[in-house]
């Protein structure tokens, strides 16, 4: 998902927030998720280093890429909220 789609989702969230259909996202919530994502990313890096088969390593690297993408999105959202 690119930043344009992410920005559109934030706009949609803001509209739902104004209409009372969503609760406010607090920066502390995003920070908690970021902490979990960073821990998972570190865990995956350790697993990749210990992986013996190429298939397993490729699968773990895919998961690591997804985790890193989510970390970038969460950091962007945190900046938007502050």
What is this entry, summarized?
This protein has 82 residues and is mainly alpha-helical. The chain contains three helices and no strands.
Tally of helical segments: 3
Largest sheet: none
Query: What is the tally of beta strands?
Result: 0
How much strand content do the residues show?
under 5%
Globally, the shape reads elongated
Structural description of this entry:
By secondary structure, this protein is mainly alpha-helical. 83% of the residues lie in helices and 0% in strands. It has helices at 3-18, 27-50, 54-81. Helix 2 (27-50) runs antiparallel to helix 3 (54-81). It is elongated, with a radius of gyration of 16 Å. The model has no long low-confidence stretch (mean pLDDT 88).
Summarize the SSE layout with pairings.
Blueprint (H helix, E strand, L loop, with lengths): L2 H16 L8 H24 L3 H28 L1
Task: Note the main attributes of this structure.
single chain, 82 residues, mainly alpha
């Amino acid at each position: 998902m690119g930043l344009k789609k992410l920005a559109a989702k934030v706009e949609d969230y803001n509209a739902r927030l104004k209409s009372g259909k969503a609760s406010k996202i607090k920066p502390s919530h995003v920070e908690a998720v970021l902490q979990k994502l960073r821990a998972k990313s570190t865990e995956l890096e350790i697993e990749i280093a210990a992986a013996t088969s190429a298939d397993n390593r490729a699968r773990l690297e895919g998961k690591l890429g997804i985790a890193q993408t989510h970390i970038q999105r969460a950091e962007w959202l945190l900046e938007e909220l502050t």
